[in-house]
Amino acid sequence: MADKFILSDEEWSKRLTPDEYRVLRHHGTERPGSGCFLGTKTPGTYVCAGCGNPLFKSGEKFESGTGWPSFTQPLQADAVTEYQDRSYGMLRTEVRCGRCDGHLGHVFPDGPPPTGLRYCMNSVAMKHVPEGQPIQLVTK
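The line above is the sequence of Peptide methionine sulfoxide reductase MsrB; the predicted structure tokens follow.
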């Protein structure tokens, strides 16, 4: 993975849309069923909307029925990091971008084989790079 991508809160607020900023930098979420990638089946790679870090291949995406795009596993182990999340009186595992630490969503142990995991992501936290197009990391 590329080096960590670190910006000040002010720099992030200037680079991201208001929705991207709310989700990626302030651990927000989008309403279920509202994300632009919910029904997307186009082959390619999902990358972090904040820094361009490759996160998930389209072949790992599945219909979970939860209202958010779901994946069985990240592209590589260090593409994401996981943290214990005790917000809202629940115990969940938060998923963040391994490069810029942006909030992506949560992972749950109720996914399909072979991993049994459901990476439940916010569409606004990702961008889709169609298969065959280059992935470009965001730089300062």
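Note on the example: DSSP finds two helices and nine strands in the chain. Helices lie at 9-15, 18-26.
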